[in-house]
Amino acid sequence: MEKIVGHAINKEGHFKSGKMGLLKERGEVMKRSVFLILVLVLMFTGTGVAASVAAGEKIFKKYCTRCHAEDGSVSEYGRNIKPQPARDLRTNRLFVAPKELPIIIKYGVYGREMPRWEDVLSDAEILDVAAYVRTLKYTPDPKAGEKLFKEKCFGCHGAEGAAKKLFNAPDLEMSPLQAFDMGRVVRFGRHGTIMSPKERILTNPVIADMVEYLQSIKK
Fold it and tell me: Using an 8 Å Cβ cutoff, are 88 and 140 in contact?
């Protein structure tokens, strides 16, 4: 058998790949395979996200609008739910982390009328609804937030607040907290301090307005 630069000729006179040629061929096949996989991933990722949101919107409108309204705000029925009204979902990005949202939908919220949906929706459908809810938006009003802060919070957090020194409340102009963390502190309070949860007395949009104002005055 004669060798010819990385190939060999067999008895029938046909080329037979040697080690160098074989490695080169395998490298080319691997490159084409990787490229094809990347293209498929991009195709399915793009269409999957769009389909997920679209499917989630349909499910949301079928099951959720009775309490949360078409746009994610609270419906008339939702506002009158006892002991606590339904929450405005347009502000969910300020209070709920992405991985928390499907859990809330699946298992419900203890102490509120938010039921669990695991017996109605599949895991895939729950993810679809969560994806759609994340697209809902609320535009905070910092002027309204400033007014509320001066009415409700200035006593402890204002520079001349009567209780600032008494409780050693932090100066929010110097707060290191970003909007997400600040929103959660306002809503759920801070353990070990005088800062109590405000979720029962302030709605999500009102908290969002105040957080927007506080973020705007940070130094």
Answer: no
Q: List, in order, residues 6 or more apart from 108 with CB less than 8 Å away.
A: 114, 115, 116, 117
Cα separation of 216 and 204, whole Å?
18
Longest Cα–Cα distance in the chain: 101
Burial of 15 (0-12, 13-18, 19+ CB in 10 A): exposed
Q: Which residue has the tokens 């979902």?
A: 89
Residue 166 to residue 164: CA distance in whole angstroms: 6
Q: At what angle do helices 100-107 and 123-133 cross, to 10 degrees?
A: 120
pLDDT tens, N- to C-terminus, the chain (219 residues): 444 444 444 444 444 445 455 445 555 645 564 454 444 444 434 444 444 999 999 999 999 999 999 999 999 999 999 888 999 999 999 999 989 999 999 999 988 889 999 999 999 999 999 999 999 999 999 999 999 999 988 888 877 766 777 777 888 888 899 999 999 999 999 888 888 899 888 999 999 999 999 999 887
Q: Report how far residue 111's alpha carbon sits from residue 41's, in angstroms, rounded to the nearest whole number.
A: 42
Rounded Cα distance, 71 and 212, in Å: 21
